[in-house]
Amino acid sequence: MQKLTRLLARVLLGAALVFAGTGHLTFARPTFQAQVPTWLPLDADFVVIASGIVEILLGLWLLSGFKAPIAGTVTALFFIAIFPGNISQWLTQTDAFGLNTDEARLIRLFFQPLLVIWALYSTGAIAWLKTLRSKK
User: Fold this and answer.
1) How far is the C-alpha of 12 from the C-alpha of 15, rounded, in Å?
2) Which segments of 1-136 does DSSP mark as H helices, in order?
3) What mean pLDDT is predicted for residues 87-101?
4) What is the span of the domain harbouring residue 102?
5) Which pairs count as long-range contacts for 53-58, CB under 8 Å and 24+ apart, including other chains?
6) Structural domain tally of the chain?
7) Span 45-66, mean pLDDT?
């Protein structure tokens, strides 16, 4: 049962990333551009396109199941890397995706660690990382 739960969780996360990445490149592109922190010294459109491509690739990797623990670890690191953007959205009071209050934007921040855990759990990366650590 645990194996099926992890499989479904991994597939759901992979599909969500492919959908979100597609949104970065198409229908939600302007909204994602508004979320790019102004302190980031890169063109907002470039950041949105690049992160969209990365999300699609990570999603496809998760869906494939190929070296799932590595895919989960890389996906978790991606979620950590984009977290400053979520903090910036809260601090700058940027409305996007129905997050139009400070409270909603703050609550969203607490979901990012859950995505990290989801990526690690659904791919077996936690156990894999423990075995790597014990080999030292």
Assistant:
1) 5
2) 2-25, 29-35, 44-64, 68-91, 102-109, 112-122, 125-134
3) 90
4) 2-134
5) 53/21, 53/24, 53/25, 54/21, 54/78, 55/17, 55/18, 55/20, 55/21, 55/24, 56/17, 56/18, 56/21, 56/22, 56/25, 57/21, 58/14, 58/17, 58/21
6) 1
7) 98
